[in-house]
Structure formats: structure tokens, C-alpha cells
Amino acid sequence: MEKGSHFIEKRRKLFSSKGIFIGTFFGGPLATGILLAINFKTLKQGNKIFIAVCSGIVLAIAIPYLKIAIKNNYGDLFILKLWPLIFSGVVYYFLKKYQTQVFHNNFETEEKYSNWKAFFVGIVCLLIIALCAFLYTLVIFNEQK
Fold this sequence. Notes:
mainly alpha; two-stranded parallel sheet; 2 strands
């Protein structure tokens, strides 16, 4: 018996583009950053993990403020119809820029996570963002009293 032959090689898993879009739809940029960071970690691209997580956090904070500023100037048309298209385009751009080559090289040999896992990551991110918004609103209303 060869030494170490009883160990089963653990297969690496990646989130597909569809899974990332599902997570993004429910959890916004925070979910996108997390899902991309998981893919980068799996592919051992440590320099991109920090960028993905930080950009997800920064966008999750900046987007609500941008929405308020834009809504006050341009109304509901932009927020309801154009904003989701613009954000989806930005996510698509980053997926193409950072992961298309990686997917083509590794997706054939790697397993992929279930899209349900991406959905649950999105829901958890949605709950985190909702909790932060609630706490922020609570602080603002307590200061006004």
C-alpha cells in the first residue's frame, strides 16, 4: 500500500457566472464581492481577494447614497429602470475582466457550487445590508429627538 493513497483529493469548487448574478440580484454588491473573493481564493489568486471584498463593501455603502442623490435630481425613472441595468453591466464587466479567462481554463476541470449556495449568500448579504440600514435609521431618528 502506498503511503498517502488512502486520502481522497478534495476537489475545488467555483461559483459560475449565473450563480454570481443570482447572488448579486439578492445581495447587491456585497454578495458580488464575496462570491468573487471565494472564486479568487479557490484559484489561489490572493491579490484579487482583497480588491473584490473591499470593492463590494465600498459599493454597498456608496450605492444607497448615490441612489438618494440621483433620485432627488432625476426622479424615479432612473432608479427603477436604469439603475439595475447599469449595476448589472458593471458586474458583467468585472466578471469578464477578472474571471472569464480563469473560467475557461479551470471551469471544465473544477466542480461548481450550487446556485442555491449563491442565492443564500445573497440573502445573508441582503439581511446584513437591511440590518445596517435599520441601525443607521435608528441612530438618525434618535439624534433628531
